[in-house]
Amino acid sequence: MDTPRPFVPRPEPHYEDEPDPQPEPLDPGEGHRVNAPEPAPLTQHGPARIIAVANQKGGVGKTTSTINLGAALAEYGRKVLLVDFDPQGALSIGLGVQAHELDTTVYNLLMERGVEVEDVIKETGVEGLDLLPSNIDLSAAEVQLVTEVGREQALGRAIKPVLDRYDVVLIDCQPSLGLLTINALACADEILIPLACEFFSLRGVALLMDTIEKVQDRLNPDLKILGILATMFDPRTLHTREVRQRVQEAFGKLVFEAVINRTVRFPETTVAGEPITTWAPHSNGAEAYRMLAREVLAR
Ligand SMILES: Nc1ncnc2c1ncn2[C@@H]1O[C@H](COP(=O)(O)OP(=O)(O)OP(=O)(O)O)[C@@H](O)[C@H]1O
Ligand SMILES: [Mg+2]
User: Fold this and answer.
1) Do 86 and 174 touch, CB atoms closer than 8 A?
2) Ligand 1 atom closest to residue 55's alpha carbon, by position in its atom list
3) 63 lines ligand 1 (CB under 6 A)
4) Which end of the chain, N or C, is less packed with Cβ atoms under 10 Å?
5) How would DSSP label each residue in 86-118?
6) Which residues of the chain have pLDDT under 70?
7) What does the pLDDT read at residue 34?
8) 144/291 Cα distance (integer angstroms)
9) Rounded to the nearest whole angstrom, what is the distance from the C-alpha of residue 11 to the centroid of ligand 1?
10) Of ligand 1's atoms, which has the minimum distance to the CA of residue 194?
11) Does CATH place domain 42-298 in 3.40.50.300?
């Protein structure tokens, strides 16, 4: 199991002055929807689809994908709630929220009676995009929940009162398959798995699939795999193209057509504290997450 790393943005200065590279189109394969349609506008909101963004491997783009998919869905008029479910608080920080200064976070929501989800929700700078922030306090919840009755359902119980107000809830999981991630999978309708196009990325996916099956058997029979998102793709290296091809062969139409390129723009957005869709709205990265949002809404 990977232990959580301290959150350090890793800029790659050698890409700084180059335009974002374009991914090479791959044969999307049978059953693939080419160019997911523009989503229809909504006249009313809810009930929410709950999507857990999970992979126990660290640094594969879970948090980046949660922020930017959420922001792209909000651009399409969806009401979105992002749940920071990692004690590192990277999702909160990436949206410019100084979570370490907050008195009430997801931790209080899970562990204290009388704290309501409405008291913890924060609006972000993006219209339609709200946040349930976390900080290091959440690491204590993992320990304290162990002795609670219904310990796997704590998050589901906590967010239930607001599900009617949102169209999509995205849960950013920590890089582990511990009790917090199990809580996310127990209340989710679907799981989105970011997979970095790197040599070792397929290692550990079997363990993740095994965990998903156990959760389906024991806690949440309706949990589905929404899709697998190829991230950190560098079209200039044969290596990442090969890894992406292998991912495509292994998972077929579960793989989203949207591919997230490796670009310094993403670490920059963390520093800026806003999604790429507002920080660099015309970049490839912003477009890729919009394409992912269309695919998610079409699935
Ligand atoms: N497509 C990308 N290109 C380049 N850098 C990226 C990309 N996506 C994310 N990053 C950077 O890589 C680092 C890890 O990304 P991110 O935090 O989204 O991964 P994670 O899976 O949430 O990590 P953890 O497992 O630690 O929670 C961050 O510094 C982020 O800015
Ligand atoms: Mg993360």
Assistant:
1) yes
2) 21
3) yes
4) N
5) STT-HHHHHTT--GGG-S--HHHHHH-TT--HH
6) 1-34
7) 55
8) 40
9) 10
10) 21
11) yes
Q: What pLDDT score does 169 carry? A: 98
What local confidence, expressed as pLDDT, does residue 274 receive?
A: 96
Give the separation between CA 256 and CA 294, rounded to whole angstroms.
Answer: 11
pLDDT at 5: 60
Atom of ligand 1 at shortest distance to CA of 5? 26
Predicted pLDDT at 33: 43
Query: Is ligand 1 within 6 A of the CB of residue 16?
Result: no
| Ligand in closest contact with the CA of 57 | 1
Structure-block tokens of residue 157: 């119980």
pLDDT score recorded for residue 6: 60
Exposure string of 24-51, with b = 16+ CB inside 10 Å and e = fewer, is: eebeeeeebeeebeeeeeeeeeeebbbb
Angstrom distance (rounded) from CA 187 to CA 164 = 15
Task: Give, for ligand 1, the residue of 14, 228, 266 to mutate: max count of ligand atoms closer than 8 Å to Cβ.
Answer: 266
Task: Answer yes or no: is the C-beta of 175 below 6 A from any ligand 1 atom.
Answer: yes
Contact 173, 206 (CB under 8 A): no
Nearest CA to ligand 1 atom 12: 59
234 CB within 6 A, ligand 1: no
Task: Enumerate residues 6+ apart whose C-beta is below 8 A from 181.
Answer: 52, 54, 56, 85, 173, 174, 211
Residue 58 CB coordination number (10 Å):
15
Cβ of 229 closer than 6 Å to ligand 1, yes or no, is no
